[in-house]
Write a structure and sequence with these properties.
By secondary structure, this protein is α+β, with helices and mostly antiparallel strands. Helices cover 47% and strands 19% of the residues. It contains 6 helices and 7 strands. Strands 2-4-5-7-6 form a 5-stranded mixed beta sheet. It has a two-stranded antiparallel sheet with strand order 1-3. Strand 6 and strand 7 form a beta hairpin. Helix 1 packs antiparallel against helix 2 and helix 3 packs parallel to helix 4.
């Protein structure tokens, strides 16, 4: 692994303990008014999201050990879990999210834990540009013999250099995305590493009014007639 990236992973691991302490301190506060209660909840939520990213970075290092087993996974079930976890953020910040499932193939070959993180990171990025008029969109569909999970946002255009790396299916190292404030280059780095491990194709589409990030997942070979949705 690249020395610079390896250094980032070491630093991330060191940050995990103080982040956990911050979360615990916030939870320990009591007798607060409604305004302070909101601040406390925000502290807990931010620290929990940061801890999740630290944990994901640690997993990036562990990919080399091949410890994450591949198995048949229900892609809709994973998407449902992610949207449930992030629902309060969309609701609290009055941001919209649209979810559409049209895939007939229900099972993909993936690692459930890693796939969850890929979708989570894409959707968390999209949340920053959603509102009641321009909702973030999550779409799952069959695509060229695979199952595609795509998250569309209506934020600023993705910089060309990041788009080229995403088009190649791999982000070399975490990087800031100045043109998209709130968007996490770290999240894209994690998503690209996890996707490559799962033999999934990851990429991005630049629109005039936003960006779509997607992952194309291999279909599980352990299929039966009950794994398909025969409805129109």
């Amino acid at each position: 692994m690249d020395v610079e990236v390896d250094g980032i992973l070491v630093a991330a691991h060191e940050l995990k303990a103080p982040l956990a302490v911050l979360r615990q301190l916030a939870l320990s506060l009591d007798e607060m008014n409604s305004s302070n209660e909101y601040i406390r909840n925000e502290m807990v939520n931010v620290s929990e999201r940061a801890i999740r990213q630290v944990n994901d970075l640690v997993k990036v290092k562990r990919l080399e050990d091949g410890l994450f087993e591949m198995e048949p996974v229900s892609v809709r079930a994973v998407c449902d879990e992610v949207t449930r976890e992030l629902a309060h953020l969309f609701k609290v910040d009055q941001k919209g999210l649209s979810v559409k499932y049209s895939n007939r193939t229900r099972l993909v070959t993936a690692n459930r834990e890693l796939l969850y993180s890929v979708i989570y990171n894409f959707l968390l990025n999209a949340m920053h540009y959603a509102d009641d008029r321009t909702k973030a969109e999550l779409v799952v569909k069959d695509y060229c013999g695979r199952v595609q999970v795509a998250i569309r946002d209506y934020g600023p255009a993705l910089p060309m250099d990041i788009w080229r790396e995403m088009k190649g299916g791999f982000i070399k190292k975490p990087t800031s995305i100045a043109m998209r404030p709130g968007s996490s280059g770290l999240g894209l780095f994690i998503a690209s590493r996890f996707s490559r491990y799962m033999h999934a194709d990851v990429g991005a589409v630049r629109h005039r009014d936003g960006t779509s990030f997607y992952v194309n997942l291999p279909i599980s070979k352990q299929m039966s007639m009950f794994d398909y949705d025969f409805r129109d």
